[in-house]
Design a protein that fits this description.
With 626 residues, the protein is α+β, with helices and mostly antiparallel strands. It folds into 3 domains: 21-239 and 309-397, Nucleotidyltransferase, domain 5 (2-Layer Sandwich); 402-524, Substrate Binding Domain Of DNAk, Chain A, domain 1; 527-614, Substrate Binding Domain Of Dnak, Chain:A, Domain 2 (Up-down Bundle). The chain contains 15 helices and 29 strands. Strands 1, 2, 3, 4, 11 and 12 form a 6-stranded mixed β-sheet that branches. It has a 5-stranded mixed β-sheet with strand order 18-13-14-15-19, with helices on both faces. The chain has a 4-stranded antiparallel β-sheet with strand order 22-21-25-26, with no helix packed on it. The longest helix is centred in the last third of the chain and has 31 residues, at 526-556. It is elongated, with a radius of gyration of 30 Å. The N and C termini lie far apart (83 Å). The model is unreliable at 1-15, 505-511 and 616-626 (pLDDT under 50). The structure holds adenosine-5'-diphosphate and magnesium ion. The site of magnesium ion has 5 residues, from loops.
Length: 626
């Protein structure tokens, strides 16, 4: 039976070999789906003609789940069962969510897994499941548009999303029945939407001010290759904060009591948001506050007043821009274009401030709330093989360095921050103790020198290392980060081939606040870290020496006379005392005293072991490390 190709009414039929693939912007506030239509990328509307799907999901006792505008409308009557901004919870652990959740009304249940669940009358749901509901609606929207199954999608994620958050996004897609062709970073998608990848060279700033988050990314296009040079931002700054500032102004002016109930406050916020949005196109708007037993208050909110309220917030986006440029090693004048992303960049005042900072008018031809989805749709079309000869190479970066814990609680960075992905790097390590047969690898992410200041990602063990003298084993630890930013770590003992491997799938990830904080700390603590590092290094040397000397004395006490033994003991104790202090020089001195005190002894042990070997024993039975 021949299958008939059914096209959308009024559309030219797509060539039959064309594979359908969509781009999805899974946003904190709003989500969109886009695809190629009429030969151009377009966002797809729902039946009522709305392109933006509010990222809000409501669970009801009946088992009904509503997504989008209806759920948003119910939010102020049913706040506990209506989940908004779920993107903030993706890939997070219960502790992270509790910290984040202070301002959120939801009740979290830990359950028996590490994944936090939000309790609703319709049951407990995880962030992944809530996101899956949003994705499912967008998938159905695309299927209704094209009257056919849609499975393949490119989904965008913030550039700074860590492993856990990316993995959670992929999991949500799988639950929604989507095949993720690629996770694409939002700024890269925006740049692609503008066709910036078509020019040969350039440095671009992508300024994304959404509902609750601000992101700035510096991209470089070089020889047709896209690279994210740096990212920055503020995960707790966006259009919502402007709504709050306006609502507070309304409360002050209308003398709304501070203890007004939850519903009044929600209504005020909704009206404040409407006023803010209206002011993007008008010079003034009427605002009304109608309180049950206080009568109505009415006033005009004009742009002057709006600016007074929102300027401090806009100002807060400038410091991250400055920092991102510095991280990228780019001067403001070197930026060839500024791309606007996010609904809040529709505000003329925001555009003016951006133009002022970068010294050029930002690109704004494409709707700022659609631009990410449009870029994703273009990338999906490429990956679906519909644009032969136009394979663009998009490179992304790792937002925070990946490393492993080494002796003394220090971090050895294996893949530094801002390395483009996919990336693979390896580093050789050795054993610390004689006869050590296992190695516990602790994978961490962060910029600081000490493990305690970084985020733990995973631990795994390499077992079955044959017993060798300390320092003899060669263990190669390899990190591989794939194009979606997901990490794979393996360790292999080179002489024996013993191998161990983990796919890092942590139960929680970094909060973006933490990423921000970690980046800031790495700059302000650089000196402190250096000092801490040299102290730890010298302490490790001290411990190593003390242990070796003790082992040698225990094994070969007969090679020492009374005086020598006492001398070694005094020097050992002195080193122990120094080691527990913080005087790096002092510890170094104590180390050399002990080394001098044991030099003779080490020589004697060496001779003894050689003699023994010559009489038919194995050399490696002897510890000659002292
Ligand atoms: P997200 O990326 O977080 O999902 P969006 O990019 O959709 O968010 O931006 C949502 C924000 O944009 C909201 O704060 C909304 O009020 C604001 N916004 C949308 N349209 C306008 C407008 N015309 N003027 C001012 N702000 C707007
Ligand atoms: Mg967005």
């Amino acid at each position: 039976m021949a299958l008939l190709q059914i096209s959308e009414p009024g559309q030219t039929p797509a060539p039959h070999e064309r594979r359908l693939a969509v781009g999805i912007d899974l946003g904190t506030t709003n989500s969109l789906v886009a695809s190629m239509r009429h030969g151009a990328p377009e966002t797809l509307p729902d039946e009522q003609g709305h392109h933006l799907l509010p990222s809000v999901v409501r669970y009801q006792a009946s088992g009904n789940v509503t997504v989008g505008a209806d759920a948003l409308a119910a939010a102020h009557d049913d706040p506990l069962n209506t989940i908004a901004s779920v993107k903030r919870f993706m890939g997070r652990g219960i502790e992270d969510v509790k910290r984040l959740g202070k301002s959120m009304p939801y009740r979290f249940a830990a359950g028996d897994s590490n994944v936090p669940r939000i309790e609703t009358v319709g049951g407990a749901v995880s962030a992944v499941e809530v996101s899956a509901e949003i994705l499912r609606v967008l998938k159905h929207r695309a299927e209704a548009t094209f009257a056919g199954e849609v499975r393949d999608a490119v989904i965008t994620v913030p550039a700074y999303f860590d492993e856990a958050q990316r993995q959670a996004t992929k999991d949500a897609a799988r639950i929604a029945g989507l095949n993720v062709m690629r996770l694409l970073s939002e700024p890269t998608a925006a740049a692609v939407a503008y066709g910036l990848d078509q020019s040969p060279e350039g440095v671009y700033a992508i300024y994304d001010l959404g509902g609750g988050t601000f992101d700035i990314s510096i991209l470089r296009l070089h020889k047709g290759v896209f690279e994210v040079l740096a990212t920055g931002g503020n995960s707790a700054l966006g259009g919502d904060d402007m709504d709050h500032a306006i609502a507070e102004w309304m409360m002050r002016e209308a003398r709304v009591p501070d203890d007004a109930d939850h519903k009044t406050l929600r209504r005020l916020l909704r009206d404040a948001r409407a006023a803010k949005e209206a002011l993007s196109a008008n010079d003034g708007v009427r605002v009304v506050v109608d309180l049950p037993n206080q009568g109505a208050w009415e006033a005009t909110l004009d742009r002057m007043q709006l600016h007074a309220l929102i300027d401090p917030l806009i100002e807060q986006t400038i410091a991250p821009c400055r920092r991102a440029l510095r991280d990228a090693g780019v001067r403001r004048e070197q930026v060839d274009g500024v791309v606007l992303v996010g609904g809040a960049t529709r505000i003329p005042r925001v555009r003016d401030k951006i133009a002022e900072f970068f010294g050029r008018e930002p690109l704004s031809d494409i709707d700022p709330d659609k631009v990410v989805a449009i870029g994703a749709a273009i990338q999906a079309d490429v990956l679906a093989g519909n644009r032969r000869g136009e394979e663009m190479l998009l490179l992304d970066v790792i937002p925070l360095s990946l490393g492993i814990e080494i002796m003394g609680g220090m971090v050895e960075k294996i893949i530094p921050r801002n390395t483009t992905i996919p990336a693979a790097k390896a580093q050789d390590f050795t054993t610390y103790k004689d006869g050590q047969t296992a190695l516990l690898a602790h994978v961490v992410q962060g910029e600081r020198e000490m493990v305690s200041d970084c985020r733990s990602l995973a631990r795994f063990e390499l077992r079955g290392i044959p017993p060798m003298a300390a320092g003899a084993a060669r263990i190669r630890v390899s990190f591989q980060v794939d194009a979606d930013g997901l990490l794979n770590v393996s360790a292999r003992e080179q002489t024996t081939g013993v191998e161990s491997q983990v796919t890092v799938k942590p139960s929680y990830g970094l909060t973006d606040q933490e990423i921000e904080q970690m980046l800031r700390d790495s700059f302000t603590h650089a000196h402190e870290d250096e000092a801490a590092r040299s102290l730890r290094e010298v302490q490790v040397d001290a411990d190593r020496l003390i242990e070796a000397v003790q082992g040698a004395v225990a094994a070969d006490a007969r090679l020492l006379d009374e005086k020598e033994r006492a001398e070694i003991e005094v020097a050992t104790n002195a080193l122990r005392v120094a080691r527990n202090g913080t005087d790096v020089q002092g510890i170094r001195q104590a180390i050399s005293v002990l080394e001098v005190a044991t030099r003779e002894f080490a020589q004697r042990r060496m001779d003894a072991s050689v003699r023994k070997a010559l009489s038919g024993h194995r050399v490696d039975e002897f510890d000659t490390s002292a």
